[in-house]
Design goal:
The complex is a heterodimer. By secondary structure, chain A is mostly helical. Chain A is 68% helix and 3% strand. A two-stranded antiparallel ribbon of chain A has the order 1-2. In chain A, a hairpin with a 2-residue loop joins strand 1 and strand 2. In chain A, helix 1 packs antiparallel against helix 10 and helix 10 packs across helix 11. Chain A is globular. Chain B is of the alpha/beta class. Helices cover 40% and strands 17% of the residues of chain B. In chain B, the strands form four sheets. Chain B has a seven-stranded mixed sheet with strand order 9-8-10-11-12-16-17, sandwiched between helices. The N and C termini of chain B lie far apart (58 Å). The chains are: A mainly alpha, B alpha/beta. Chains A and B meet through helix 1, helix 3, helix 4, strand 2 and helix 8 of A and helix 3, helix 4, strand 9, helix 9 and helix 10 of B.
Amino acid sequence: MPPPSLLDNILQILLNGIASGAVYGLFALGYTLVFSVLGVINFAHGAVFTLGAYLTYLLIGGAVGSNGLFPGLHLPFALPYWIALLLAAGLTALVGLLVEATAFRPLRRFEAEPLLYLITSLGAGVILVNLMQIVMGAEGYSLPISALGSLPVTVRIGEAQVRTVQLVLLAVAALVLLLLTVWLELTRGGKALRAVAEDATTARLLGIDSAAMIRLSFAISGFLAGLSGGLVGLSLSITGPYFGINYGLKALGVLVLGGLGSVPGAVLGGLIIGIAEAMVPGDWSGYRDAIAYAFLFAVLLLRPRGLLGGPQETKV
Amino acid sequence: MAAADVSRFCRHPLSANLPLTPGSGSSVQPTRPPFRSRAASGSPHRRHWLPAWLAAAAIAVPLQGCGQGSSNSSALPIGAVISLTGNASVFGQDQRIGLELAERHFAGQTPALQLLLEDGGNDELTATSAFRSLIGRSVLALIGPSLSQQAFAADPIADRAGIPVVAPSNTARGIPEIGPFVSRVSAPVSQVAPLSINAALRRNPAIRRVAVFFAHDDVYSTAESEIFQKVLKQRGLNPVTVQRTNTTDQDFQNQITAALALRPDLIVISALPNDGGNLVRQIRELGFRGQIVAGNGLNSPNIYPICQRHCEGLLIAQAYSPEADTPINRRFVEAYRKARGGSIPPQFAAQAFTAYQVLAEAASRLQASLPNGRTLASLPLKEQRRRLNATLLAGSYDTPLGELSFTPGGDVVQKQFYVAEVRMNSDGRSGRFALLP
C-alpha cells in the first residue's frame, strides 16, 4: 500500500490540530469569562472541569473503581449521555458559584490584591481534587464508547481520519462560542456583564447588580468547565483526579495567545496551539508541549496583547 | 478533640473496607491539631465560607501526609513511602491496599510490626522528605518509594543510615546497586519485557513492521522500551517508528496517525495504566487491527475501564498473575476481592504485599534465631537493622509473586513470569488477564 501523500499528511495535521484545539478552546472559554469580569485567573477551573467529567460518568451509571471510597458503588439510575452531560454541567455551575462564594467573594469584600485570588482559587482547586481522589480513587475511567449511538467511530477524509467524538467536540465549541457571543452582544444580560467587566463601580451606579453579574459569570464558567470535562471524558477518558490540571496550564497559554478576556480569542488561541502541537514531527512528539510553548513565546514577543486582545474596554 | 476521635478523620478512606484489627495498626495519628468548632472557639456568628473550605481541607489533608501508626507501642515500626497523591497515585493507592492487607495477614507473627505510611507524592522531594520523616521515627525498615526516579533520590538517605529498604515497584536499572541496604521485589524490566514480544512473534511469525510508543518522561517506561527495541532488533525487526509520549498526555491522535501511516503489523507500548490504556483505546478507534503488546506498566485491571472493549487481545508480560494457583496467592486474591468489592488485585498491590511479607518473615526468622529467647527489640536499633537486612537477603519466600529470593546485591530472583492476553467480558468494562500456555 503506498504511503500517504504530502497533501494527506497536511490534512491529517490540520484535523489533528483542530480536534485538540477545540478542547483547549472550550476549556479556555470558562477561564476567559471570569478573567474578563474580575481580571483574575480562577485556578479552580481545572478541578471543576474534572468534576464535570466524574459527574457525567456517574450519571450515566458508572461505578466507583476499586481505589474509591465505596468500590463498585453506582447510582440507582443511568441517564443517557447527553442528558447526563447537561445535568453534570448544571451541577458544576453550582460548584462554580460555591467557588465564587468561598474563594473570591470574601477577598473582594476586603478589596484584596489579585495575587490572593490566585492562591485562594488554587487552594479551592487542590481541595476539590483531593476530595475527588478520596471519593473516586486514583484510577482512570472512560465514558462508554457507545455514548454517541450509531455514529461511526472515525470519519475519513481522503487518507486522513479523525475520531468522530473530536468532531463533536469541535461542533460544541463552535456552538458555545456562537451562543456566548450572541448573548454578550445582543442581550441585556450580556451587555450588563460587559458593563461590569469594564467598570464594576460605574455599572453599579447605573443600576446593574454587579455582584449578581459576577456570580453569573462563575456559574457560566462552571457550566462550561463541566460541559468540556464531560466531553473530554468521552473523547479521551478521565485519567485520574489530576487530569484537569494539565488542561488548566495549557488553557492559560491559550488564554494569553488569544488575548486575555477575549471570548473568540480563547477559541482561536486553542485552535492555533492545537495545530502547532500537531505540526511537531512524530519522533519529537514527546516534546510537543515545549515546542507549542516556544511558539506561544515567539507570538507574544511580536504581539504582547495576544491575537485578539485589545484595550480593556473592548474586552468580552 | 481526643486523638482517638481525630483518627476517624485521619484514617484514609481506602482502608474503609478493611476492618483494622486493634493492635495491628488500627489507629492513626493526626498531622495537625484539629480545628475548633465555632461553638467551642466562641467566634462570632459570621456568614463566612472559610470554615467550609477548612473543614474540607481537614478531610482532604490525610491524603497529603497522615502518618498511620499502630496503637501497639511494642511493635517494631516499618515505614512505607508510596504515592498516595499525584499522577503516580494510580499505583500508590494499589500499593496501599496491598500493604494494608499484608499488615493484617501477618498481624499474628512475632515480632509484631507496625506499618507507618507516608505519602511520597509524585516527585523526588516529597519522597525524600517522607523517608527522612520516617527515619526520624526510628523505623526498622522502609518500603518504597513508588517510582524509580524517586528511589534514586531517597534510597541513598536510608542506605547511608543503614536502614533496609525494600522497593515494591522500582524496576529500573541500578536500583539494588544504590547500596547494600537496598533490595527490591520488583523484577527488572530486562527479565519481563522480552516475553511478550516473543509471544507475539510466535503467534504471528509474519510480523515485519513494528511501531514503538513509550512514555519518555517515565524512567520505567523508557528503560522498558529500550529492552523492547533491543529484543526486536535481535529478532531482525527494526521499528518503523518510535513515538514518544508523556505520562500526562491524554490525546495521542498526532502520534497514532503518524505511526499508522507507516502501516505497522505490531505496536509495542511502554506506558503507565492511565495514559497507556487511553493510548490503546485511541489506537483501536483509529483503525489499527493488528497485535498490540503492552509493557508491565499496563499490567493492571485499572486499564479495563479506560480502553474498555478495545483492551481485548492486548498481550502483556507479567511479574504477577492473579491466576497463579498457589495457596498464598489464593489467600491474597480472596482477601483483596473481599476488601475491594470483588476487584481482581493488580500487580502493584501484590508487589507491595510481597515487600511487607519479606520483611515480616525475615524479622520473624531473625527473632527465632536469637539465642536465649532474646527478642529483636532488645537489640540496639542499628544492630536490628543490620541483621534484618542480612536475614532478608539470605532467605527465600513463598509469595503471591511466586517463590522469591535475593541476589547478594539485593536484586530479586523470581522464578515465575507470565504472558497474559486481556479478555474483556461482554459488558466491555471488566475482564481478565488470561495466561497464555
